[in-house]
Specification:
alpha+beta, two-stranded antiparallel ribbon, binds zinc ion, transmembrane, membrane, transmembrane helix
Length: 121
């Protein structure tokens, strides 16, 4: 067997490896594109769902609407710091009431409708 055969075999195996590699890369890219497409579709659906869901009725004081009375005052119990260390980090707390004066969060849909009906009457 002359040296030309060795050269041919080298070329052939090298070429085959290159070919296999190219096919593998192409498959991987296609798989990745498919995954990206699925991911995009999923986040799109999540965004649509989020847009249709009414917002959580949570006040600016971070407490739920149900913690506020008719006048808008918040009745949630909170921990009021009574002592601080030199870094202004609270050391001691005592129970107190949230000093929120008015609920400022989104109104639940049912309540908005009820209000409109009572306005008409
Ligand atoms: Zn509150
Ligand atoms: Zn509040």
């Amino acid at each position: 067997m002359g040296w030309i055969w060795w050269v041919l075999i080298l070329f052939w195996t090298g070429g085959f490896a290159w070919f296999a590699d190219t096919v593998r890369t192409a498959m991987r890219n296609r798989h990745q594109r498919k995954m990206e497409l699925m991911e995009a579709k999923r986040s799109e659906r999540l965004a649509v769902e989020a847009a249709h869901r009414p917002p959580e009725p949570v006040c600016g004081c971070t407490h739920h609407l149900s913690k506020h009375d008719k006048a808008g005052r918040c009745h949630e119990r909170v921990e009021v710091p009574t002592a601080w260390d030199e870094n202004k980090k609270p050391l001691r707390f005592e129970p107190g009431q949230c000093n929120c004066q008015q609920y400022v969060g989104p109104q639940p849909l049912s309540q908005v409708y009820a209000d409109e009906l009572t306005d008409l009457a």
